[in-house]
User: What shape does this take?
Amino acid sequence: MTTRVGVLALQGGFAAHTAALARLGVEADEVRTVAQLDCVDALVMPGGESTTMSMLLDSSGIFEPLQRRLWDGMAVLGTCAGLILLACEVLDGRPDQHLFRVIDLTARRNAYGRQIDSFETELDIVGFDGGFLGVFIRAPVVERVGADVEILAEVNDFPVLCRQGMVTVASFHPELANDGRLHAWWLSGCGIGPAI
Assistant: This one.
């Protein structure tokens, strides 16, 4: 059976993730409806504006079906806003913001600063040969991780790449790095393609 990969395409940087996956030979489905969600086995949740995404997930009717899939163990890669939505707790968020609560960490929204404070830095990712360019744009900071969360990369002692079970989250934007290794590593963990 072939694993089908989806990219949540309600708002944000979904097109760049779709392109990054295509460069690895994976044709990802854009997911905007429950019917499209039902057709995929693994999902990328892109960066964007987390409160807007939360409202669109609710208004489209996807939130609850996606939450059930995530709680049942569907593989997911959440970047930037995706990290926020997957977290158990978010600081500086809106009180009505929905969270999937599938990775035991606390994130602070936009903690690296405004758009003008965006930056790039080389990351040392566990298991990767050589550095990986981390692109941070209004990125969240992970302020707390639970005992079952594996920290795979840090910046200034703050985790920026974490994994718990089938949930992987990044504060940065790997789809903008012109380096397919992180997507390839995640796909390998989903049973798709070779390891890095």
